[in-house]
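Hi all, posting the design record for the shared folder.

TITLE: backbone redesign
STEP: 1 of 1
STRUCTURE INPUT:
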């Protein structure tokens, strides 16, 4: 398995530090250099500058310098090359994540927020999490972390018998093409939690669409649909909170609209008061 870029960079830096320390000690012992002069000499040597103002005299010192050149120059070049590559990769990753979050924003605008409103309206235990999801401008990363912990332990209690399954069927059927387009987007591979959410929503849509009728179902089938509903509800809520954190930290104007349409806030209004 090939080493990751970060791992390779750590290896190069570690080897370079060993060469640096060993070279300083060796030159101090063989040439009588001060620690600073030895450090200075090694740096200008491995950087291929070589001013020539300090140079080894003894055979042992010259052997040490040969070893520094053979090992140190390659490591120094490796550190520089991998550091540059790491910065470029980080920038590209940031750009990919920005595009991905744009996709997530479109998902919640078209589908996700409306689903959350439908689900939260039928969640008997929604009051246990409602207050924790009224996100505001005053929230810190710690507040988001506390809300995430609460959601992770919350029991989602949607009962398919209490839901208007025909209305949900029509809603998801209307957006099935939209869901397919999102699932075909290669950007989603970058996101470990949003893709399972999409798959869960698409599966729920398929379950509802595949049934000829959605009333007077057997108890076992209602239980099966309840499981699908709660899977979507849990993933949808946790991903929504993550997206709110991203908006708050990066796009205050989008965050403002999201909070004025907060599906968990019964007093939310898009009208700015």
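Okay, here is what came back for every position:
SEQUENCE:
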């Amino acid at each position: 398995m090939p080493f990751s870029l970060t791992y390779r960079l750590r290896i190069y830096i570690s080897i370079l530090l060993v060469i640096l320390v060993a070279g300083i000690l060796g030159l101090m012992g063989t040439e009588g250099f001060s620690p600073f002069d030895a450090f200075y000499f090694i740096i200008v040597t491995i950087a291929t500058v070589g001013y020539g103002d300090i140079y080894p005299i003894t055979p042992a010192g010259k052997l040490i310098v040969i070893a520094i050149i053979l090992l140190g120059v390659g490591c120094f070049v490796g550190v520089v090359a991998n550091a540059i590559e790491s910065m470029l990769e980080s920038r590209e990753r940031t750009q990919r994540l920005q595009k991905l979050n744009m996709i997530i924003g479109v998902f919640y605008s078209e589908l996700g927020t409306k689903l959350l409103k439908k689900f939260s309206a039928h969640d008997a235990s929604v009051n246990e999490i409602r207050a924790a999801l009224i996100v505001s401008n005053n929230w810190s990363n710690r507040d988001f972390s506390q809300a995430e912990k609460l959601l992770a332990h919350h029991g989602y209690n949607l009962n398919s018998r209490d839901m208007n399954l025909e209305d949900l069927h029509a809603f998801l059927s209307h957006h099935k093409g939209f869901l397919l387009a999102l699932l075909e987007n290669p950007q989603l591979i970058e996101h470990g939690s949003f893709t399972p959410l999409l798959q869960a929503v698409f599966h729920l849509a398929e379950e509802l669409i595949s049934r000829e009728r959605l009333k007077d179902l057997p108890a076992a089938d209602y239980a099966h649909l309840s499981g699908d509903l709660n899977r979507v509800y849990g993933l949808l809520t946790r991903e929504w909170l993550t997206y709110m954190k991203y908006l708050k930290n990066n796009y205050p104007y989008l965050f403002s609209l999201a909070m004025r349409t907060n599906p968990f806030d019964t007093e939310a209004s898009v009208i700015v008061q």
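COMMENT: The chain has a mean pLDDT of 89.
Let me know if anyone wants the other runs.
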